[in-house]
Amino acid sequence: MKTHVIIPVVFLAAAILTLSSCEDEISDVATTEAVKDITGSWKVVQLTRNGEDLSQRLDLTNFRISFNADGSYTLAEELPFIADAPGTYKLSDPQYPFALILQPEDASEEVEATFQFPVVKGKRQLSLSFSLGCESNAYQFNFERQNPDL
Amino acid sequence: MKPVTRTLVYLYLVIGLFATLFLVHCGLTALTVTVPEKAQVNERVTFVMHSGAEPRIEEPGTYTTQLVAGIMVPKSWNARENAVLTFKSPKGNGTMRMIPDAEAEPVSGVSWHQAAKRMFGIGPNLVDDFEWIVYRSTQSYTFKNNEDISFDVNVECNVGSENMLVRLGFYVGSSIESLRPEDTDYKKVAFSDVFEVTGGEGDLTDFVNPQLAVVQPVRSLDNDIITLNFDSGVTHTVLDNEEAVYLSIRCFDETGAQVAEVSEQTDRTRLTAIGGKRFRLDLWPRKYFNLERDQHISRLEYYYTDATGTQRVGYGNTEEPFTYTFRCQ
User: Fold this and answer.
1) Which CATH superfamily is domain A40-145 in?
2) ipTM of predicted assembly, 2 dp
3) Does pTM top 0.80 for this prediction?
4) Does B5 score more than 60 pLDDT?
5) How far away is chain A from the Cα of B114, in angstroms, using its nearest Cα?
6) Per-residue exposure over B162-183, b if at least 16 CB sit within 10 Å of its own CB, e if not
7) A19 — contact with chain B (CB < 8 Å)?
């Protein structure tokens, strides 16, 4: 008789403990925003000017930007961009960046691009927005990692 | 049968939530606009939007919202700084405030101004040098069933210092409805007839009529990506029957000295056909002309040619070249 009462109580207690431990894990994950790691080589997959898609109209195949773990970056192939020389980079915030800041090695001032890090169609994208000439002209470059497994 | 005391009794509580759905429909009537035919440069002009609300609400429900109004004007007017929007209605009059850039339009996730540009575009204009600017009433207004009203939104704005032909854009809406693409009841948009600004110096900027040659963006520097367009359907030219159209171009610095010339009939200069006798070529001037890092250009002169380079079309279908000046203002 007693076992009939005790066994369900034991199972109920175990279930409550299990559920509460899961809850803790979930809340821990949710409160820790990952540091944004942009190291690697990125290729342009989309380029817009004032919202107009120019991706299929310009040859973007060879343009790459590589961010290295030592804080340096390099550019491959010339393309209109906020920097035309290699240098160093940093994010405005490691976890919640709103800007990518580049310091070209031969320039006295830093240059800044609005930073977004979305996942598009299952792939991480690096999205940079800036002006090249007139401020009224807004460009958005969307990059994908060339070597996502590294 | 087991005794009742040996039986574990489980109680299940069911909580039901009942929501009352009021059918609310507060459509706006068609938008019309009063826009003068022309104005002098830098003149302060008043445009008027006319619309109304037709609330159809299941009583005793009500509908509370703020009035939203937008204008599409050339960027050169600097309307963000000098436009003033006011409204008059039986439910009250007031001045509208520009919605901050930082406030995202809920459906698109971008600012209201960008959302309006995405949704309404540039209407019947052919060249894009426009901005949408969206305003909102500072007060909310509550409507009851069948409380139909008409209202006017006045737009006072300086028209800038450039001669132009343009069709202006206007929009009215309801703040709580946002800019939902499928909605046709809560947002109304209208574009004006041709509005002319005269009396200024310099060439006429024609946003309305098809032109043989247009460069986009209208304002740019040599580090921008520019698009040179050729529309051979505008008038009869020597290139009427050509399937391949090429660019012949020279660039000049601030002193007027020629910096470079590209006059060849190759893939580098060939325009892409985009249908309807229209062609275009996208280029980044700094690379196209192989400029040194400290070298800048301020003006372009160009023709469109056939594959031999002997037949060419210039400004107004003459022997004068088309011109383009790099500038931001």
Assistant:
1) Domain of unknown function DUF4822 (2.40.128.540)
2) 0.77
3) no
4) no
5) 10
6) bbbbbbbbbbbbbbebbbbeee
7) no
